[in-house]
Amino acid sequence: MKLRAGLIVAGMTVFMAASSAFAQQAAAPAASAAPDLTPVANPVSGFVKAGVARYEKNMVAAAEAMPAEKYGFKPSPEMNSYGHLMMHIAQSNNTFCSKISGQTAPDVKIADTDAKDKLVAAVKDSFAFCTAALAKVDDSKLGEQFMFFGNRPISRGGALVALGGSWTDHYAHRRFICG
């Protein structure tokens, strides 16, 4: 449990640092131009949507790089396998992006013991769904709440922040498992 808490803290630290660096890089002015500090129309949803492609690239590349015979690998017996992590990423993306956007999540049947190619395809498809589902999301309804994870109310803004944290957490777990 302490290891999971430590990974979550480490993941959130990486997320915050990456978020700061990403925001600075995205807004970096040309050497001779003054920085544009005009207000951003949709700072929360825009930031999360901008991260979809980056996390998709990293996580799909990681899923493809892991040899098929290693998808059952667990760093210790009580931990989840790499295949489980890939299944969880696909399911999490579909659930978060469905709830945030109000669109129906794809009905995907996958198991952590499925073949690598099926799990990689599910991860790719889940990021494609997120891209499409989040396309029309803006910051106008950040305060609206819905039930998430059973009976827990969460705001749309909170879910967007949690989605970004989820990507960081999953990528950190992948790094922990693979080194």
Topology:
Elements: H1 2-26, H2 43-65, H3 82-101, H4 116-134, E1 145-148, E2 152-155, H5 156-178
Antiparallel strand pairs: 1-2
Helix pairs in contact: 1-5, 2-4, 2-5, 3-4, 3-5
What does this structure look like?
The chain has 179 residues and is mostly helical. Helix content is 61%, strand content 4%. The chain is built from five helices and two strands. The protein has helices at residues 2-26, 43-65, 82-101, 116-134, 156-178, and strands at residues 145-148, 152-155. Strands 1-2 form a two-stranded antiparallel sheet. A hairpin with a 3-residue loop joins strand 1 and strand 2 (152-155). The longest helix has 25 residues, at 2-26. The radius of gyration is 17 Å and the shape is globular.
Q: Report the sheet-strand fraction.
A: under 5%
- Radius of gyration from CA coordinates: 17 Å
Shape: globular
Determine the structural class based on helices, strands and strand pairing: mainly alpha
Number of helices: 5
Task: Kindly state the percentage of residues in helix.
Answer: 55-70%
Order of the strands making up the biggest sheet: 1-2
Instruction: Give average pLDDT, whole number.
Output: 85
Largest sheet: 2 strands, antiparallel
Low-pLDDT segments, ≥5 res:
1-25
Tell me how many strands there are: 2
N/C terminus separation? 20 Å
H and E order: HHHHEEH
